[in-house]
Write a structure and sequence with these properties.
Elements lengths: L2 E11 L2 E8 L2 H9 L5 E9 L2 E11 L6
């Protein structure tokens, strides 16, 4: 069974979320996410045989609670 993980940076564009980039290394993904000025999410995903088997939002920044 092929299994791997990746860290994704997603940014909100209007009402839609768009993936900006994905990395195998948390430090690189985290550094990119910190430098974004728009609302963004840092997501950790685990894939098995090409399908997502686990997904966690590690951080969401750039918006207030009132949004």
């Amino acid at each position: 069974m092929a299994q791997w993980e990746q860290f994704e940076v997603w940014a909100q564009n209007g009402q839609r979320w768009e993936m900006i980039a994905s990395f195998n290394d948390f430090e690189i993904a985290s550094a990119l996410a910190r430098n974004r000025s728009s609302k963004m999410r840092l997501i950790h995903k685990v894939y098995e045989n090409g399908k997502i088997v686990e997904q966690d939002v590690l951080a969401e920044v750039g918006a207030t609670r009132g949004e």
